[in-house]
Write a structure and sequence with these properties.
- By secondary structure, the chain is an alpha+beta fold.
- It has 2 domains: 162 residues, 2-Layer Sandwich (Ribosomal Protein S5, domain 2), CATH 3.30.230; 129 residues, GHMP kinase, C-terminal domain (Alpha-Beta Plaits), CATH 3.30.70.
- 45% of the residues lie in helices and 19% in strands.
- The strands form 2 sheets. Strands 1, 2, 3, 4 and 5 form a 5-stranded antiparallel beta sheet that branches.
- A hairpin with a 2-residue loop joins strand 4 and strand 5.
- Helix 1 runs antiparallel to helix 2 and helix 7 packs antiparallel against helix 8.
- It is globular.
Length: 308
């Protein structure tokens, strides 16, 4: 048995802001993926995954919601028969490892599932996101449901607000010099502690003001520019966003990267932003000249996500 593939996701814009109703833009990232598989003899990662699925089953059993019904009997039997989630998506890297797992479980065991082939109305997308939020809370304590939604649909998703999300198209990639890339911090980040730091910061009026007036403003502008293909304007807004994040989200940026972050802003070789909740994992980079960024970041592992 091998289930369908579910891909990683990258939240290009909107991390933390979407908790407070800014816009967000998430795209599937097909370089990493996962699928449900079964084996008779489980060892190592597969065994760990199987045990994790059993814990997830116990959690789903306790869910009291009218939103979704699962065939829990089938899920339990498959776990007993050696089912595990075989995934190349690195965990704690901000690209949706738990999201892909959640999407695969919903796809296989939800009895009244909304399928990708349906006409995906806004109501259906909101319902799916709510279901995925409930499910993924098992992993993070609090989840927007966006990662599994992206993985499940395998489409770019535009978040206009909590109650207004839509599948969207993004401009096709060009063979230009510019790029969006991942920078590997080579350390794992955990979502829950980072979200807790953010929630504590939100108690501060000055932080809330900055979030509303600067962070959300630049995030929304970046998304508009990206979707319309206004590359010149995009880089101006990404630079401003990068500055705001460095000034106000330092705990979410691994210490070793504070200077690297600053260097990008000063040289204009590249601009960095958080990828997911931060604290480790990948950092997202934007550059108008990828070769120049590569030279500037020669000591780090980079991976291209999108070309301008």
């Amino acid at each position: 048995m091998k289930g369908p593939l579910f891909y990683a996701k990258i939240l290009l814009f909107g991390e933390y802001g979407i908790i407070k109703d800014s816009k967000g833009l998430a795209i599937p990232f097909n370089s990493y993926k996962g699928a449900l598989k079964t084996a008779q003899h489980l060892t190592g990662e597969a065994k760990k995954s199987n045990e994790n699925l059993l814990n997830f089953y116990e959690y789903l059993k306790t869910l009291d919601s009218d939103l979704v019904i699962f065939d829990l009997e089938a899920f339990k039997n498959d776990i007993a028969n050696g089912m595990y989630f075989d995934s190349s998506i690195p965990q704690g890297y901000g690209i949706g490892s738990s999201g892909a797992l959640v999407a695969s479980i919903y796809d296989k065991y939800a009895t009244d599932k909304i399928t990708v082939l349906e006409n995906l109305t806004r109501d259906k997308l909101i319902k799916l996101k709510a279901v995925f939020s409930l499910m993924e809370s098992f992993f993070h304590g609090k989840s927007s449901g966006l990662d599994p939604l992206n993985s499940y649909l395998s489409l770019p998703i535009l978040i206009n607000s909590k109650e207004n999300i839509e599948a969207t198209g993004i401009p096709s990639q060009k063979e230009g010099k510019g790029a969006v890339f991942l920078l590997d911090s080579e350390q794992v980040g955990e979502t829950e502690p980072m979200v807790n730091i953010f929630m504590n910061k939100m108690k501060n009026e000055g932080f809330r003001k900055m979030l509303h007036e600067e962070f959300v403003t630049y995030t929304d502008a970046c998304i508009d520019d990206f979707l319309k293909g206004n590359v010149k304007s995009l880089f101006g807004n990404v630079k401003n966003l990068s500055k705001v994040v460095l000034a106000n989200f330092k705990p979410m940026i691994p210490n070793a990267f504070h200077k690297v972050w600053e260097k990008g802003i000063q040289t204009n070789d590249y601009y960095l932003k958080l990828c997911g909740s931060g604290g480790g994992g990948y950092i997202l980079g934007f550059t108008e000249d990828y070769e120049k960024a590569q030279k500037s970041l020669e000591n780090y592992k980079l991976e291209i996500v999108y070309r301008f």
